[in-house]
What we know:
Elements: E1 13-14, E2 42-51, E3 64-70, E4 73-76, E5 87-94, E6 100-107, E7 114-122, E8 139-144, E9 150-162, E10 173-174, E11 191-194, E12 198-209, E13 222-228, E14 231-234, E15 246-256, E16 263-272, E17 275-284, E18 290-292, E19 301-305, E20 308-311, E21 314-317, E22 322-331, E23 360-370, E24 376-378, E25 381-383, E26 386-392, E27 395-398, E28 409-418, E29 424-431, E30 441-449, E31 458-469, E32 472-487, H1 490-496, H2 505-508, H3 513-532, H4 540-546, H5 556-584, H6 589-604, H7 609-624, H8 647-653, H9 664-696, H10 703-722, H11 725-736, H12 749-755
Parallel strand pairs: 5-10, 18-22
Antiparallel strand pairs: 1-31, 2-5, 2-9, 3-4, 3-6, 6-7, 8-9, 11-27, 12-15, 12-22, 13-14, 13-16, 16-17, 19-22, 20-21, 23-28, 23-32, 24-25, 26-27, 26-29, 29-30, 31-32
Amino acid sequence: MKRPPQPEEFALKETSPKIAGSGMVTGDKVTCTYDLVEQMQYLYVRVVKAKELPGKDVTGSRDPYVEVKLGNYKGVTKHFEKKSNPEWNQVFAFSQESSFVDVVVKDKDVLLDDFIGKVTFDLIEVPKRVPPDSPLAPQWYRLVDQRGNRVKGEIMLAVWKGTQADEVFADAWHSDAAAVGSENIRNIRGKVYLSPKLWYVRVNVIECQDLLPSDKSRAPEVFVKVILGNQALKTKVSQVKSVNPMWNEDLVFVAGEPFEEPLVITVEDRVAPNKDEVLGRCLIPLQMVHRRFDNKSVPTKWHNLEKYLIIEGEKKETKFASRIHMRISLDGGYHVLDESTNYCSDLRPTSKQLWKSSIGLLELGIISAIGLSPMKTKEGRGTTDAYCVAKYGQKWVRTRTIIDNFSPKWNEQYTWEVFDPCTVITIGVFDNGLLGGGRDSKIGKVRIRLSTLETERVYTHAYPLIVLQASGVKKTGEIQLAVRFSCSSFINMLHKYSQPLLPKMHYVHPLSLIQQDILRYQATQIVSMRLSRAEPPLKKEVVEYMLDVGSHIWSIRRSKTNFFRVINALSGLIAVGKWFDQICQWKNPITTILIHILLVILVLYPELILPTIFLYLFLIGIWYYRWKPRKPSHMDIKLSHADAIGSDELDEEFDSFPTSKPTDIVKMRYDRLRSIAGRIQTVVGDLATQLERFQSLLSWRDPRASALFVTLCFIAAIVLYVTPFQVVALLTGFYVFRHPMLRHKLPSLPLNFFRRLPARTDCML
């Protein structure tokens, strides 16, 4: 079943920016590592320091600062009180053209600032610098007055022409941000962030000894509560109802380096249905916990439990200490999931000792955006202060904020190491709320799956920014990107398709689905909290939008989407069934006779069955190569059923969880329905993902996987042709019914290959 095309408004558009990487730049151009963005020319002025500035009145002191003026724009340094040899070390970047730039030294005064001296540069004489040249050395310049006569004092400056590839670009004051006060400059600068290193903390609670319950006449009902930060888990009540209870239960938490909170272990006795008595507690710093990289058991350890008695309002420790027996480890063999497994950007284990070498580089050029919607009101008119965030692996990047512009041009380029081609990069566009004191508003986002990209090719497209609001689906603009996936070892990349998708520990000692959901939520909370403490902060709402927090909540629209994904994936089988029914019904007698002849041939010569099938698949794959996708994947409103959603369904999707409906009965039923339906939605979505992976074998959406599969089909056709069918059938039977001792816990090679095939999940809203 062919999917209906998207409306032109929401379609992906190929662009032709003037970038060196795509060969669109002609004539004289400077070689630069920034070859996926348009070159932007800037005039840089570094104001380092001044010396021997003249004194003022009787005190002989000055409060100096510097103004750098180019045309109608000026940048101002901070002022120093009573200092004749100030040091600023500040860089200014001007994108406007003019003939001269003036560097003016002034004295801060209450009424009118006094002029001290200036230096003027003719822009024709300013040198050009191209990295990786060393930075231009600043020089001392004598100050002159308004008439050009020398005055007392000197200033150290460096003035040069460059591009956004200059290393001072990110921290420079920009002329297009002249309206931003000095206190907000830090909030509009571009930055690179790193997610905290996340670990799974496994606490195996084994037993306790010599507990001291207050009521010795009753059998204690003991359980253990473990707290790590805002995560709290507890064991079941021990079946051994004595002062020496036993559990042997595993509790798993998420922790991020650097470790800030200790593990708090509390042993409690349930003395009444709503009353628990603390029998002892202990604190365990995570820095002291054993780190393991495989499934080998770590040593157990006894820990003393502290118990305090309240005597006359004061805590006093009891002399007799109970003990708890536990096995605690930091499991570095897992990959801590903080994203949906359908569009993960990183699949490596926590421990660096288990990392494999990279297979290539991902380069992203964030060029510009056009037609952005106004996100807030300032001085009676709509405005947008836009910036971009890109997330791949542990590295987050944030562009600088372009102030009050619906068509901002960033032209910033970033690079990531790629360790697995079956990963997804996410790019989001946001409105900077720090300038207005509010939240950062989402404008839209784009996901690009690396396995659908051809290596060494530069993709330049304008991606529609689509958001679903309570009023319906809306296009909020377009973002122009340039993407290139470079491969350092093609053999290693193909080898990745035969490897397990996740690290070995996920299969040897798997976590339950409920555990994964809880741990993923905790991981996203840790990541958002840590990044919100950076400078400038990456706000919680930004991180959660990039990580798709809450995407598992029940929605009629998503359920419809997953259902029709299943129908679309099964459309091929349905078509074959209809065709077979037509053969049986003799709708086309000639075709039916040919099928009878083919059936007789295959019965008489069974060795032709498998070669014919694989040869047929090979020919279909070659035939479909003509229609392989030429563009990266993007958000599809038709696939997401966002264009035909009713007001009631939108009201349900944007309803809070739990519901805000007033009636208690409706609230109870509504919450129960959404919880159950959310799980059904996930199952249906997983089924659709598997079926779509079958489709992608011959669709060339992942060109490497399709090429590998088509090649294997051709080889299999030849091998199976020369091998007797009876031998193949016998070996297959022996393999299927092999002894459990000969089986491996890790998935098989074909299953690993299949799980790496792309689905349509990264195209869903």
